[in-house]
Specification:
The complex is a heterodimer of chains A (about 180) and B (about 170). Chain A is an alpha/beta fold and about 180 residues long. Chain A has 6 helices and 7 strands. In chain A, the strands form 2 sheets. A 5-stranded mixed β-sheet of chain A has the order 5-4-3-6-7. In chain A, strands 1-2 form a two-stranded antiparallel ribbon. Chain B is built from 6 helices and no strands. Classes of the chains: A alpha/beta (about 180), B mainly alpha (about 170).
Chain lengths: ~180, ~170
């Protein structure tokens, strides 16, 4: 019995070492979102495409869609744009943009230069919609179901690998759940 | 000659003053950006901005960060204070959007209980181990002192053997 006790410190060390080792590979920037399974916040904002009219929560697609937070100042947004463009061309999923803390005319120029994968982009110039979405910087991408409930959140740039291994499976899961029987 | 020196000195004094003014102005601006009705409101704003962590530039509070989202959150805090919301309501607003991460002093919940009392736990375990060692050390001394005559004789012989030169 006392022999076994000698191994307790080693055991404690191994458990701690394992935890800390795992901690080394955690990205401190990916904060768990508290808004998963919560409805989207209410808003009433113009779009980059039409400054005169406003859109609200009710105008959003009534099927699962991507809500992408972007800005013309945001380099990673430029990086992930081709993926969204390809998805839009193949009609994989509706994509709605949130033009976060940007100037509408700069956003328009960006879309003209790089192409727009978005159905439309909601203008969030003062970043208030962003705050209500718990956003802390572009790019961030939400999967929202047809009832306007946030189901998934990806923080940071989406590359092809993330698109294939995270976004598409998560989207498929949301679609499977909300599909009419 | 002396005139040139005075001229240079004056110039450098002017330069230092100008530099100081330039360096001070952003600080001044950050303080004066919001107008409060009462000093209490300003104090609450200062306190809350210090208590919330900036979600973008991590490891600084809202006061110390110039990131876009920190600026926006400071503005939200200001507006909520001016609307007469309580500190609890403002904290709830932040928690609902950014979770426990936003608090520099996490709440006491099931998830954070280890965070709060882990150090105490380690102290107790450490104390327990030390107590065990001390308690075990005492009987050993007593046994050593309680050798009977035969054992003492044997010990003496053993020690002599050790002392013998090889």
């Amino acid at each position: 019995m006392s022999r076994l006790k000698l191994f307790v410190p080693v055991g404690v060390f191994l458990v701690l070492a394992l935890l800390l080792w795992r901690g080394l590979y955690l990205d401190p920037r990916t904060l768990p979102s508290v808004l998963i399974d919560k409805p989207l916040p209410e808003f009433e904002l113009p779009t980059v495409e039409m400054a005169a009219a406003t859109v609200s929560k009710d105008d959003l697609p009534d099927e699962p869609f991507l809500l992408n937070i972007w800005g013309s100042y945001c380099l990673p947004c430029l990086q992930e744009n081709p993926i969204f463009m390809a998805a839009a061309e193949q009609d994989l999923v509706p994509i709605v943009g949130v033009n976060y803390k940007d100037k509408p005319h700069l956003a328009q120029m960006w879309l003209e230069d790089n192409g727009s994968p978005f159905d439309y982009s909601i203008v969030d110039e003062d970043g208030r919609l962003g705050i209500n979405l718990g956003v802390y910087g572009a790019p961030e991408t939400f999967i929202v179901d047809g009832n306007g409930v946030i189901r998934y959140k990806h923080i940071g740039v989406i590359d092809y690998q993330i698109w294939e291994t995270e976004i598409m499976p998560a989207l498929a899961a949301v679609r499977a759940e909300t599909a009419p029987l | 000659m002396s005139r040139t020196i005075t001229g240079t000195t004056r110039l450098s004094v002017l330069f230092v003053l100008l530099l100081t003014a330039v360096m001070l102005s952003p600080v001044q601006a950050a303080v004066d950006a919001f107008a409060f009705d009462t000093p209490e409101q300003q104090e609450r704003f200062r306190h809350l901005s210090n208590e919330f962590r900036c979600p973008m530039c991590q490891n600084t509070n809202l006061t110390g960060s110039s990131g876009g989202v920190a600026e926006d959150l400071r503005r939200e805090i200001y507006m909520m204070i001016m609307e007469g919301q309580t500190d609890e309501e403002i904290t709830r607003f932040m928690l609902d959007r950014y979770g426990d991460f936003i608090l520099y002093r996490p709440r006491l919940t099931g998830e954070t209980i280890l965070l709060w009392f882990g150090p105490l736990l380690f102290l107790l375990v450490g104390g327990w181990v030390v107590m065990g060692i001390i308690r075990r050390a005492r009987p050993v001394e007593r046994v050593a002192a309680e050798l009977d005559t035969a054992e003492q004789e044997r010990l003496r012989k053993l020690l002599e053997k050790v002392d013998e030169p090889h």
